[in-house]
Every structure is written in structure tokens, then in C-alpha cells.
Amino acid sequence: MARRLGSDVVGHLARGYVSGRSGEILLVPEPWNVLGNWTGGVRGVDDPRTTHATPWSYHQRVPLILYGPGFVRAGLRPERPVDVADLAPTFAELMRFRFEAPDGRPLREALRPDLGKVPRAIVVVVYDGGGWNLLEQWPDAWPVQRRLAEAGTMYVNATVGSSPSLTAPVHSTIGTGAYPRVHGIVENTARMPDGSIGDVYGEDADPSLLEQPTLADVWDRTNGDRPWVGMLGTEGWHLGMLGSGGSSAEQDVAVLWSHGRETFWTNEDRYRLPDYLPGPEVFRHRTLEIDGTDGALDGRWRGNILSADTYAYTGSPAFASYQGDAAIEILRREPIGEDRLTDLFFVEMKTTDVAGHVWNMLGPESEEVLRAQDRVLGALLKTLDEEIGRNRYVVAMTADHGQTPRPDVSGGLRVDRNAVLEDVNEAFGEVVEAVHPSDLFLDMDAVRAEGVSVEVIARFLGDYRYGEGLPDGTDEDAIPEAVLNRRVFAAAIPGSFIQGLTEGEIAALGPGSYAESDLTTPPAIPSFAFRAAGGREAARSEVTP
């Protein structure tokens, strides 16, 4: 199974595995298959919801853009393999600060060789779910991001660096310059120290499980908490960019939003929540703005109900604008860029991810959301010019993963992970605790009691066929025999096997059996993504609307 995946994919799996936190078996669905929480999972069901936890290229490849007149070279398009772990050491290089990133390396070719100063601020913008395949799907929806790439350096062969390609681990890699095997955040939900399976940041946004210091934390504490450091995001999953917070009474700013609270909040034991942030009434006003675009105030946008009771509430352009309102208020009211110590501001934009989960990356809603976030990006750049000054800041832009097209369009299969759990337990006894899109968690006491091994269960899953896991009541006669016999998983590999592989053994696995397993060859990025700027000075200032 490892040879079938190939060295690139297995390498990313190894970077993302931590014994005791990851599942005992790592699951890799066949390309384009979706392992989720649905029953009635017959191929072709018109359900837009998908997951994005795989090591395949469509989830792994992300844009990586550096922009900063005076600091970053313009018009470059390097093709060497890089990943988001390289961001933190690159920022340290710009700040002339010694920071030991366990896995990342500075992106030096992007930096101007004549640096005679440090940036007053570095702003990191992460489009959650904004990987290359979303941008390719809607090529006209991100003109500001494209101009940013043309006016700076864009790495066209960048990945998130590890698998699973999920929010919490990848944001932690951005912040620490380390892969999950070092920083410890392996999933959004993982095996906790008490043996339970839960949210890695808990209900109160507690970063205690993050085992590697972030650049922000080290920079802040080295300088006596004098630099301004802050983050705007949604769930606690994004705190891996920022870290554990300052050590003085003036804690670092961490602004979160989560479904159910319907207001900005933070872990006040760790971070500071500004009192000037736009309130829920501003979000409601933004929602009314898009509600009326169809000519009627009926509580709907594109026919979708706009209600705080639904997860989709944060998947509309209204939330993108609302997050933008908050980011601009922070830039205007906080002392960012006021002294020679570089300030750090991390901005996670969630709406592309929520829209992808609710309406799918192929839905027109995703295009509108991408346009809305692009407008926010333009407003942020304009505010940076006004508040800090052009030629005095650096912006880095990337994403934490790509997205999955609907299986009925991509040719994949929709598989109910609850059916997988039931089938494994039927075959081996009550040995499975949980099945996640990337991990299978086993009750090892039960495994030993049943007299089976992790390897035997993994081989069972490696040969698991679509027809074996159909929910009760499914009309199998309506499904072609070839589909029923299709393999669900490209691989199901014990974590202990992955952990035991050396770098040489991983390299010896070769290229793998799937086109989607190539994570190092420069991809054919469409021409619309980057027009050759040729290093022209004029291009470097034309990034705001």
C-alpha cells in the first residue's frame, strides 16, 4: 500500500503522524472519494458536502505569495518545491532575528539582497480552503490576489507540507516552521492526553497541546513583549499561527468567532480581546446587504437561508465582509508598525472553507465568497498603505488546504464513515473507537482481547470495496458491478509502520500509482494565475483596487 501511494504522499503522512495523538491506522481514500458522515452514500447522490483531509495534490497544493516593496523581489515565480513551514523562518530572516525552525527554510530568493531595514509589520493572510484548485475553478474571482502575486514573488510549487491537510495542523506549521510530528497538532480532533478523542484546542481555545514555540511567541518574549502580536480568526484551530500569548498583562490579541457564540470572543486567560470590534449588529447589517441583492428581503441569499442557527451563516460574503471590518479596525486602532520592532498580524479568512463544505467548491456561492474575500484583501492592503506606509510592511498570503469537488462530478465515491466503523467491528469485534476522514482510532485493549493486530485490520481496509459498505436499504441492482467492486481506500497504513520508515526507505518507494501523488514536480499553473511582471517597478504598487 505504501508503494501504491509513493514517496511524496508517504513522506507527507510521516510528517503529520504523532504516536498517541494520531489514529492507529492512517486512512487514504482513493483519489476523489469522500469519506464523511452520510448514509445512503450511492455514487451520484446530489450532496455538495465533502471533506479535505487527504495527502493528494488537490488538497495539498496551495498558493504561497510574498509581497513587500523594498523587501520582496517582484515578478518571480520559483518552481522549486516549498511548503508553508518555510514562512516562519522567512519572516525571521526579514526581521534579522535568529529563529530555529525545525523543518522550514528561509525563502531567500524572494528577498531583496539590498535589505537595509526591517519591515515595520508582517501581515499573514490565510484563505481557509483557498488552495489552487479553488482558484483554478474561479479564475476571475481574485483579481487583487493575482496583482499581489505579480507585484511580489509567488511560489507555484508550494504545498501545506504534511497530511492530513486540515486547518489546525497546517496553521500550526505556519506559525512554528515545524511539521505536526514536531509541533504535536496532528488533526482538528485527536487523541487527547486522557485517552479521549476531542478538539485539540478544546472549547476554550487552549493552546496547551502545541509543543513547539511559534515565531510570534519567541519574538515577543525575546523583546520583552514590546512587539505587537495578534491574530484574527474563527475557531481555536487557528491559534497555532500565533502561539500561547504574551507573558505580560498586555496579552497578545486573539480574536475568534465560533458558531453558537455569534460574537467575537477569546480565551481571556491567554489573550486580549479588543473592546472596539464590530458587534453582531454589524454582521446582521452585512447579511441584510446580501439578502437584498435578489430584490427581496426574505432572509435568503441565492435561495439559501441566512440564519444564525445554521453553520452556513458564516459561509456567505456577509461574514467575509464582517471579518474584514474587524481586521481593518485592528489595523487602525492598534499600535501596529509604530516602532522599529516588527509587529506580526495573522488573518485567517474562514468563509471559503465554510462555503466549500456547505455548497461545494463548484457552487456559485463559492465564487461569490472568493470575490468577497478578494475585496477584503484589497481593503487590507489599502489600510496598510494608509496606516503603516507603502514600502514599510510585508504581506504573506497562502492557504491551509484545497477542496474536493462533488463526487458525482469528479467520478469519486461518497462513503459513509459510520458504515466503515460498523463493518470493521463486525469483522473483528468492537475494536473501533472512531473513524475520521484521515484516521481510524482503535481501542487497543479490545484489539488485544480479540486476538487481532493493527496490521490485519489495515489490510482488511486496504481491500475494502464500495459494495461492502452500502447502507441498509440500498438498491444494489441500481449500481454497476464495476462501481460496487471499486476500492474505497488507496491505503490504510498502521501509524507504527509510517513512524518506523527512514527517509531512505520513503524515497525508495518511488513515484506511486496515482497522478495525484506527485507533490514535488512543478505543476502546470494556468497562465491566468500569474502574468509575467518582468520585475517592472510599476507592477509593485498596483495591488489595491
Question: How would you explain this protein's 3D organization?
Answer:
The chain is an alpha/beta fold and 545 residues long. The protein is built from 20 helices and 20 strands. The strands form six sheets. The chain has an eight-stranded mixed sheet with strand order 6-3-16-5-15-10-11-12. Strands 18-19-1-20 form a four-stranded antiparallel sheet. Strand 18 and strand 19 form a beta hairpin. The longest helix has 24 residues. The radius of gyration is 23 Å and the shape is globular. The C terminus is likely disordered.
How would you state the average pLDDT, rounded? 91
- Order of strands, widest sheet: 6-3-16-5-15-10-11-12
Poorly predicted ranges: 40-44, 531-545
Query: Can you summarize the main beta sheet?
Result: 8 strands, mixed
SS content category: alpha/beta
Essential attributes:
20 helices, globular, 545 residues, disordered C terminus, alpha/beta, eight-stranded mixed β-sheet
Quick description:
By secondary structure, the chain is an alpha/beta fold. The protein has helices at 2-5, 7-15, 57-60, 87-95, 132-137, 143-151, 167-176, 180-183, 215-222, 280-291, 317-333, 351-359, 364-387, 407-410, 417-428, 444-449, 454-462, 481-484, 495-500, 503-507, and strands at 25-29, 34-36, 64-67, 82-83, 121-127, 153-155, 158-159, 189-191, 197-199, 229-232, 253-257, 264-265, 300-301, 304-305, 343-349, 393-399, 414-416, 432-435, 439-442, 489-494. Helix 10 packs across helix 11 (317-333), helix 11 (317-333) runs parallel beside helix 13 and helix 12 runs antiparallel to helix 13 (364-387).
